[in-house]
Every structure is written in C-alpha cells, then in structure tokens.
Design a protein that fits this description.
Elements lengths: L5 H11 L4 H11 L2 E2 L4 E2 L8 H30 L7 H27 L2 H17 L1 H10 L13 H37 L7 H10 L2 E2 L3 H24 L12 H8 L1
Parallel strand pairs: 2-3
Antiparallel strand pairs: 1-2
Helix pairs in contact: 1-3, 2-3, 2-9, 3-4, 3-6, 3-7, 4-5, 4-8, 5-7, 6-7
C-alpha cells in the first residue's frame, strides 16, 4: 500500500503491524476473555490461556498509546509556527508511552504472582499516563481554528481528536483512581486477611500459561464486566478511527505534510 505522507505512513504502520493490533487483540479477548489473577476463563482451551490474553493485551496497548501520542504530536506540529512539536507536548507524550510500557511489565508481574497490589499499581500508572496528555490535548483543542464557532469541534479531524482525547484523559484516569484501584486494593486486603501466598514470577507465569478455571457465572465476572465491555469496544474502535490520521488542515498538500514531518 502506498501512503500519501510520512505521517500517514507512521500512524498506519503503528495501527496495522500486525493488522490493527489493538482492535485485533480486543476482538480476540472478547471471544476468549479471562481474569488473570483468578485464572478465570470462558473456555477450557489453550487459546484462552491467561498468558496468550496478556500478550495480546501488551502488544495492543503499546500500539494504542503509540497511535494516540503520534497523532497528538502531529496536530501540535501542524499548529506550531516553527513546524516543530512543542517541548511540552513532546515531553508529555513520550513520558506517557514510557509509563505505559512500565505498566505492561507491571501487568505481567501481577499476572504471574497473583498479587492484586500490583494490579492497582498497573491501573494507577495507566491513569497517570493518560492524565499527562490532558494539558496538551486541551491547549491544542483551543488552538485549533474555529474554536468559538458552533459545531467547531468537528471543523477538522485533528480538533475532534484533541477534544475527545482531552475528555478521555480526565474520565479514564478518574475511573482508574476512583473505581479500579479501590477494587484491586479491596481484593489485596482480602487476600492478606486470608493469608494467601503469592507465586514467584517464573513459576507463576508457567501457572498462568497452563492453568485455567472455566466459569460462566455472572458473579465471577461482574466486578470487571464494565471495563471489559468499554475497553473491548471503544478502545478498539478508537484504534481503527485513528487510522484516518487526524489533522487540522483538510487541504494541506502532501508536499507540505512531508515538509512538516521533516
């Protein structure tokens, strides 16, 4: 496939290699869902292995945050008078990516050990990463042309992207800190009270790869059902939509885009 600009090339390569990783991962995990620490699965089948699920999640989530930050930096560069991404946006976006990579490592650790404390740390890291994107997303939303016009949020894909990102970077961290973290901490305290013993990393990772507890009881899934439904639907859709490569100018020539991307 021939892409019309380096920006489109980059955002689509991130989204397509391998073929919509976040959307594909969400689709797969929607068919073969699991709760890592409890070893709950829907099916007693190797494809529903906890480690397979976690690996799909790792690849998809890193690709997702990479897409988001790439689009954010491009919109910033379009609006910049110097044709360079502003230091604030560059720093915050790359810091968010690094934090999310650390969160993925944390997720493998809690999956292996079954220690719920590390689940709380993981979702807290994701909350921090997304909250870091809020200042740039809000500033760029306001800087986009037509800010005071009715319906101006849809004046360009770049502005729509930044506005949605600004809202998401408030709502998502709030959910993580107010709902997910307390849920995992409550489970951690219950495990501590019950005197539960945790796996060492490598034996725990083997256990996660080989042990499954198939269950279709609503009570086993209900606490995690909301985030799973939203994640497997909205997050995958956002990855597909970002393949359009959000931009502020709808009539920018390919040569101009190439020049801006350096």
């Amino acid at each position: 496939i021939s892409f019309p600009s380096p920006y489109l090339d980059k955002v689509r390569v991130v989204g397509q290699a391998p073929r919509h990783p976040n959307a594909l991962g969400c689709a797969y995990r929607g068919i073969f869902p699991s709760l890592y620490l409890q070893r709950f699965t829907l099916w007693d089948f190797w494809a529903n292995s906890i480690v397979v699920d976690r690996t799909f999640a790792c690849i998809g989530e890193i690709a997702w945050i990479s897409q988001v930050t790439l689009c954010l930096r491009h919109v910033d560069k379009e609006l910049s008078e110097t044709d360079q991404t502003q230091p604030l946006t560059s720093f915050l976006s790359w810091t968010a990516v690094v934090i999310c990579v650390i969160a993925e490592g944390t997720s493998y650790y809690n999956t292996a050990t079954t220690n719920e404390l590390w689940c709380a740390i993981e979702v807290g890291l994701w909350g921090v990463a997304w909250a870091l994107l809020f200042p740039s997303a809000l500033i760029l939303t306001c800087k986009c042309p037509g800010c005071k016009c009715p319906g101006s949020l849809f004046s360009s894909t770049g502005k729509t992207f930044c506005a949605v990102l600004a809202a998401t970077s408030v709502a998502y961290p709030a959910y993580n800190f107010l709902v997910d973290c307390p849920m995992y901490m409550a489970r951690y305290r219950a495990d501590q009270a019950a005197g539960n013993q945790y796996f060492k990393f490598w034996p725990g990772l083997f256990d996660a790869a080989t042990r499954r507890i198939p269950t279709r009881e609503y009570s086993d899934w209900k606490e995690d059902m909301f985030w799973m439904v939203v994640y497997f639907s909205a997050a995958s859709l956002s990855s597909i939509l970002m393949m359009a490569a959000p931009r502020v100018s709808t009539d920018t020539t390919n040569d101009e885009i190439d020049r801006r991307m350096g």
